[in-house]
Amino acid sequence: MEGRMMKTLVIANQKGGVGKTSTLVHLAYYFADQGLKTAVIDLDTQANASFTLGAFKSGTVASSLFKNMARFDLAPIDNMAVIEADPPLANLEKMKLEDAAPAFRASIGRIEANGFDVCLIDTAPSLGIAMVSALLAADYVASPIELEVYALQGVKKMNATIAGIKQQANPKLEFLGMIPSKVDGRNPRHTLHLAELTAAFPTLIMPTPIGNRSSIADALASHCPVWEIRKTSARVAAKEMLAMAKHIHDKMEIA
Hints:
Helix content: 25-40%
Distance between the termini: 7 Å
């Protein structure tokens, strides 16, 4: 991607426990494996992405991205650099959006100036200063969802949030869609809800659902992508994760 602009993707959902971090972590591994210089920003105070991707920590912390800094240097390790979540992130809600958002956008520019091809941003499950700042600076957003009873309301809420930000402040923001996550193919309720969501939002439900598989949790705990778990039980999960990552890679038009 020499000479091209960095592309920034936010993984967001206003509901927790839907697979945001596992999605982001696997995208990071996939992009880095493709030879892309990949920056990861963890804006979730739970710091789960920072834990799994601990081998790639850059020494820069996420709260610093909301300050007006002159510069910083990020040196990728195996094509990846992680800007880890830190406790001061919890204080962001005391900031005004008109201060936080421009500072964060400037930091994204500095990351691009460090030669990165892709920036992936994990967010907390709430529409706070951090998530809004990320959406205002991003090119793309994708939302993992669970196929439970409140999924339809969640899709409508997230879709409205993204549409509002796109219309009012970030016209370049593109919603790549919803990623059905933790899907139980033997659960008739999941099958029904997936059919309902696909019918209601035919262009927004990605055709790459991720099953509810223990091998994904094993991979996150082992600090590696699921396709590196050498168990027969991980093969299907690996195939699903790789299909999802390739789909998003292609939708982002990354060469």
